[in-house]
What does this fold into?
Amino acid sequence: MISLDELQEIDIQDAMAWPPWFTWLMGVVAAVALVGAGWYFVLQDQQVNLVAKQREETVLTETYRS
It folds into this structure.
């Protein structure tokens, strides 16, 4: 188990001295942050366009049927 003393002894400035579990944890945090930022900045605009096109499709389908 990880003790509080181990966490307090980690020097953030010296990444080569980090324990392996802390390196993995920081890697996972960075990966989640990158995926979240990618979703927000890249895919959010595409999601808005998709919803608009779906509404347009519904209107065109109803126009065609009538």
